[in-house]
Write a structure and sequence with these properties.
- By secondary structure, the chain is an alpha+beta fold.
- The chain has one domain (about 5-145): Sufe protein. Chain: A (Alpha-Beta Complex), CATH 3.90.1010.
- Helices cover about 45% and strands about 20% of the residues.
- It contains four helices and three strands.
- It has helices spanning about 5-20, 65-80, 85-100, 125-145, and strands at about 30-40, 45-50, 55-65.
- Helix 2 (about 65-80) runs parallel beside helix 4 (about 125-145) and helix 3 (about 85-100) packs antiparallel against helix 4.
- The termini are far apart.
- This is SUF system NifU family Fe-S cluster assembly protein.
- Pfam families: NifU_N.
- It comes from Halobacillus amylolyticus.
């Protein structure tokens, strides 16, 4: 597939997640909530995670922001559902490397739609938009483990 076709496909995936976000809403039952914002651009997210015996059983978000931050939150919640906490954090670290323009590969973890965000690495000002939901998830996991 040519670079232009791949770039177009990636933009379509991002816009699909932005216009039709997955897992937007509220988690029922016991859950942890993390509120984060990106003051430089106004992106804001509230992430809710339901973790049971070390597994992310549910993940939902609400907030407002640019297409990058909201689509990243949609992709992230989709990717971490059903994952062990360690794997969700590993996925977050892989995503951070992707945002730095580094190649990432792990035969045990499939980033799926998340790879559509790799082009954000070319725009340093947008990296914080893309990583906001992921940082919220890491903070939630850290807070949960400290409790």
């Amino acid at each position: 597939m040519s670079f232009n076709n791949l770039d177009t496909l990636y933009r379509q995936v991002i816009m699909d997640h932005y216009k039709n976000p997955r897992n937007r809403g509220t988690v029922e039952g016991d859950h942890l909530t993390v509120d984060m914002n990106n003051p430089t651009c106004g992106d804001r997210i509230q992430l809710q995670l339901q973790v049971n015996e070390g597994v992310v059983e549910d993940a939902k978000f609400d907030g407002e922001g640019c297409s990058i931050s909201m689509s990243s939150a949609s992709m992230m919640t989709q990717a971490i559902k059903g994952q062990k906490i360690e794997d969700a954090v590993k996925m977050s670290h892989m995503f951070s490397e992707l945002m730095l323009g580094n190649e990432v590969e792990d035969e045990n973890i499939d980033l799926g739609d998340i790879e559509a965000l790799q082009g954000v690495a070319k725009f340093p000002a947008r990296i914080k938009c893309a990583t906001l939901a992921w940082k919220a998830m890491e903070k939630g996991v850290d807070d949960e483990q400290e409790a």
